[in-house]
Amino acid sequence: MRRQRWFEIHDQPWFPRFLRDLVTEALETVWNQNRTYHPIAERLRDAVAGSKADRIVDLCSGGGGPWKSLSSEVAGERGLEICLTDLYPNKLLRQKKTDCAYAITIWPDSVDARRVPAELTGFRTIFSSFHHFDPAAARAILADAFARREGIGIFEGARPDAWTLVAVTAMPFLAVRAALTARPFRWGRIFWSCVLPVVPAVVWVDGVLSCLRSYSLEDLQELTRGLEAEGYTWRIGDQSGGPVPIRYLIGTAA
User: Is 192 exposed, middle or buried (0-12, 13-18, 19+ CB in 10 A)?
Assistant: First the structure.
């Protein structure tokens, strides 16, 4: 296992909850404005259709992930429901839920990605959060989906290569732009992003740390080893075509 044990500021229990919400909201806005995850839309759409799921259960959603820009490409005309969940549900996301397009719902209770509640059936997704989990927890996430024969898609833009680390240097500026353009307008967002730029600083530092602690292709193969059964398939690779390549791990049940 090549992954290094680093930490991220907004994961720490001492980091204020309201700032964590602003950080995850900023990331969500940047991903949507830059269409960061657009390259994997077709691959994800085919995986969901192949699994015959009528709902996506998005885990570790934070401020909503990339779904505002990605939902129409993945759902198409299928009427697919997208349910956003998190261990620490984002209060800002609940306040702006009426702005969401398509069938996007928000699960109000805490959801542990390692043990998804039985009533939350559907194709599971995790965007830019898998590297937050140590190998044992990451394996538990995959094992839970495999045991329930639910499809799962893991997607990460972070990786420890030169281009991605250079791209991360733009994140503070993109976070400021996100603060100025995100709606609904909030003075608190402006203060902590522009007047006292705590949010852009945390986004940048955590972006670098995300790259350093991300899982390699070999790591992902190791995590899926032993989770094998007839009719369940794992696919691992990199998808180019966007601001940064997207690393993916997709498990599907026939």
Answer: buried
Q: Break the chain into its structural domains and give their ranges.
A: 34-160+215-253
Average pLDDT, the chain: 90
Domain 34-160+215-253: give its CATH architecture. Answer: 3-Layer(aba) Sandwich (3.40)
Q: What percentage of residues in the chain have a pLDDT greater than 90?
A: 69
Contacts 24+ apart (CB under 8 A), 89-94: 90/21, 90/24, 90/25, 90/61, 90/62, 90/63, 90/64, 91/17, 91/21, 92/21, 92/22, 92/25, 92/63, 93/21, 93/25, 93/61, 93/62, 93/63, 93/64
The pLDDT score that the predictor gives to residue 62 is 83
pLDDT of amino acid 103: 76
User: Residue 76 and residue 19: Cα distance in Å, rounded?
Assistant: 34
100 or 158: which leads in pLDDT: 158
